[in-house]
């Protein structure tokens, strides 16, 4: 034991000689491109003087949405989350920044229709941003009924409440894992996308926009805090597979692009479209996780493989080697806004979708995982339960 401690002390001393500490390391600097400079005037126009509601407000994306939205002078901002401490943190942060007069925090589960409707009754939001979700692939893979409850029923409850309360627009935060999903989490997010698309086409009052993107640096459960902790503990740094790659973006840039995509109709001052729009954020080239791990170790002034071991642990259930942001069949359209593309995924009309959606929700509520898997597969045929996650990528998506 004393030998291990001495080794770690030597490594940390070596890191100290470089002048690098954990707090000095900016993971964004390890990415192959710099964040974009984004014009957010249209986003400001979309929320200024409006009542805005954000679900999942205590999460990585939700909290950053709240920080940026509150700077655009909304009349009111409602923060919704079912995690007390996460909600407390963003509530306190915004109040300390001087925004206490316009925010309200509601500790509410988006699956509880009666509770959520009371929140909507109070807030009467013009703009709803739905970021609440269970997102960790291996956890949702092992807890499918709970995943479907939050990611499918929760989304449905929020979307239905927005229509009932005549919100102007709903922005749904989706994921690249909804494309050709091998994970149950990705399949549930695709179902929520389908419902948002169907609702958008079926009525002309509330506009629904879906925005897909990949991983954000530093989010809860992401590789950055994991690698940082492993390096500071002396290793090993764990990578699931030597060839695994992911798309990465800073949280700030991702949220700015979400707001930009959501406000494109506002920017163009056109008649609001109801065509089930799904926007895809251009996240640049994918990053090899192994290379990112090596760069992060080097940022501490240490040598990968010598000072810090890198260990391969194998793909986790539902995990892909390569994420896909769009399908080959998608006709991607440039929007005129740098970093935002418009996809054209398949849609299901609401009358056909509703009974299948009910099957998913009923199976999740009953806890019948086998029935749930079948119901999800019926809606998202690409998803097959327990299928090998190591799918080869389409060359055009690399």
TrEMBL record:
Gene3D superfamilies: NAD(P)-binding Rossmann-like Domain. Belongs to the polysaccharide synthase family. It holds the Pfam family Polysacc_synt_2. PANTHER family: POLYSACCHARIDE BIOSYNTHESIS PROTEIN EPSC-RELATED (PTHR43318:SF1), UDP-N-ACETYLGLUCOSAMINE 4,6-DEHYDRATASE (PTHR43318). Transmembrane segments: none annotated. It comes from Hyphococcus luteus. This is Polysaccharide biosynthesis protein CapD-like domain-containing protein. Residues 52-339 form the Polysaccharide biosynthesis protein CapD-like domain.
């Amino acid at each position: 034991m004393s030998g291990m401690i001495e080794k770690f002390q030597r490594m940390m001393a070596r890191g100290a000689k470089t002048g690098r500490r954990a707090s000095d390391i900016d993971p964004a600097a390890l990415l192959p491109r710099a964040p974009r400079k984004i014009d957010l005037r249209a986003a400001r126009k979309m929320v200024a003087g409006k009542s805005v509601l954000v679900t999942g407000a205590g999460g990585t994306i939700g909290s950053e949405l709240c920080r940026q939205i509150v700077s655009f002078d909304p009349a009111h901002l409602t923060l919704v989350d079912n995690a007390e401490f996460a909600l407390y943190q963003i509530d306190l942060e915004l109040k300390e920044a001087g925004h206490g007069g316009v925010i309200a925090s509601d500790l509410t589960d988006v699956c509880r229709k009666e509770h959520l409707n009371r929140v909507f009754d109070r807030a009467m939001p013009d703009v709803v941003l739905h970021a609440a979700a269970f997102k960790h692939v291996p956890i949702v893979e092992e807890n499918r009924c709970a995943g479907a409850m939050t990611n499918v029923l929760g989304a449905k409850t929020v979307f239905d409440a927005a229509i009932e309360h005549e919100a102007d627009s709903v922005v749904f935060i989706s994921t690249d894992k909804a494309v050709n999903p091998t994970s149950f989490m990705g399949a549930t997010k695709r179902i929520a996308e389908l419902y948002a698309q169907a609702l958008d086409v079926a009525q002309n009052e509330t506009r629904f926009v879906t925005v897909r993107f990949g991983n954000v640096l530093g989010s809860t459960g992401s590789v950055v805090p994991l690698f940082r902790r492993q390096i500071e503990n002396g290793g090993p740094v764990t990578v699931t597979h030597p060839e695994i790659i992911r798309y990465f973006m800073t949280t700030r840039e991702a949220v700015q692009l979400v707001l930009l995509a959501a406000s494109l109709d506002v920017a163009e001052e056109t008649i609001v479209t109801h065509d089930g729009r799904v926007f895809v954020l251009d996240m640049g080239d994918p990053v090899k996780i192994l290379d990112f791990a090596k760069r992060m170790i080097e940022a501490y002034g240490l040598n990968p493989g010598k000072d810090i071991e890198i260990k391969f642990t194998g793909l986790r259930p539902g995990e892909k080697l390569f994420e896909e942001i769009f399908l080959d069949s998608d006709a991607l359209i440039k929007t005129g806004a740098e970093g935002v593309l418009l996809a054209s995924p398949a849609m299901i009309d609401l009358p056909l979708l509703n009974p299948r959606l009910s099957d998913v929700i009923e199976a999740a509520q009953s806890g019948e995982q086998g029935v749930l898997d079948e119901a999800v597969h019926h809606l998202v045929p690409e998803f097959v339960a327990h299928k090998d996650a190591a799918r080869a990528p389409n060359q055009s998506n690399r």
